[in-house]
Amino acid sequence: MSSNQVHLVAKLEANTDVQRSDVARAGVGSYPTVSYWLEEFATRHMQLEPGRDKPIIANKRVWGTRLYFETFGLTLKQGRHFTDAEARESTPVVIINEFMADLLKDRGQNPIDAKLYARSSSDPITVIGVVGNLNLPNQAPIAHVYRPRINTFYPMIIAQTKPSAQISRPEINTLLTQVHPQIRVYDMQTTEQILSAHLKSQRVASMFTIVLSLVAIALATYLVIPLLLGVMNWGSECPLAAPKQYSNWS
Predict the structure, then answer these.
(1) Of 90, 121, 148, which one is at a domain's C-terminal end?
(2) Which residues are bridge partners to 127 per DSSP?
(3) How far apart (Å, rounded) are the C-alpha atoms in residues 222 and 232?
(4) Which residues of the chain have pLDDT under 70?
(5) φ and ψ at residue 195, rounded to 5 degrees
(6) What residues does the MacB-like periplasmic core domain cover (predicted)?
(7) 90: left (phi over 0), alpha (psi -120 to 50) or beta
(8) Whose CB has fewer CB within 10 Å in the chain, the N or C terminal residue?
(9) Phi, psi of 165, deg, nearest 5
(10) Does some domain include residue 116?
(11) Domain containing 229: what range?
(12) Angle at the Cα of 229 from the Cα atoms of 73 and 40, rounded to 5 degrees
């Protein structure tokens, strides 16, 4: 990962033109696809001590920056958030949700400063914070792990807008050229479309009361960096439960 790549992606997150009046905030990370919310998809395993024979804690993992997770509506309950430096350097620290924190407590472990290990790894990852649970309506809690990282291989941006905001593709392209002149929007999908593609006949999509519009962006330089720009219009403190409206970009 080059410093220029990291700088470009970080600039997208901090750019004041992107974060104008109808964009409340935006952050860079790896978009949690269906696996972020549904237990049957892409489960990871963490352990309290190294060794394949040791007990595991099944969880979902998402990479991103502090602003990325805050844009999702994750509220810090204990400890602290990631720093920008930790995201740039992929520091081995982690924030977990309350459900996973309770699992650690049940095993006699204080969540803050707990050491976790990826399966088959002896390198410790330190828990620095606990955030609230973020689940689909009527869904049982799932353990979630949040790691600091600016992913330059397939980075994505998620942006929260005000309920009345209407953003067009030309507007998005104009804003993005303030960051880099060759960044352009080339595709968009709603969350319902993503869910439908993954779940087909299942009616999980009807559980959503928000639409997360995803915009894929390509950077036509020596390095092609696909990005996803999501716009969520939230009308309450529970972003997955009671938004007001949405923007469908096409």
Answers:
(1) 148
(2) 94
(3) 31
(4) 1-23, 31-42, 136-138, 151-169, 172, 179, 183-250
(5) -60, -45
(6) 60-167
(7) left
(8) C
(9) -70, 140
(10) yes
(11) 3-30+153-233
(12) 60
- Condensed to tens digits (0 to 9), the pLDDT of residues 44-59 reads 888 898 988 888 898 8
CA distance 86 to 55: 28
pTM for the full model? 0.69
Residues in CB range of 54: below 8 A, 6 or more apart: 47, 48
Residue 86 corresponds to which amino acid?
Answer: E
- Distance in angstroms (rounded) separating the CA atoms of residues 38 and 74: 17
In whole angstroms, give the CA distance from residue 63 to residue 90.
Answer: 9
Other C-beta atoms lying within 10 Å of the C-beta of residue 146: 26
Q: What is the predicted pLDDT for the residue at 73?
A: 75
Together in a domain, 144 and 157: no
Say what the pLDDT of residue 178 is: 72
Nearest-angstrom CA–CA distance, 187 and 115:
40
Q: Which residues contact 244 (CB under 8 A, 6 or more apart)?
A: 163, 233, 234, 235
Domain boundary among 148, 179, 208: 148
- Please tell me the predicted confidence (pLDDT) of residue 132: 92
Residue 21 is assigned to a structural domain of this protein: yes
Pick from 51, 245, 84, 219: nearest CA to 150: 84
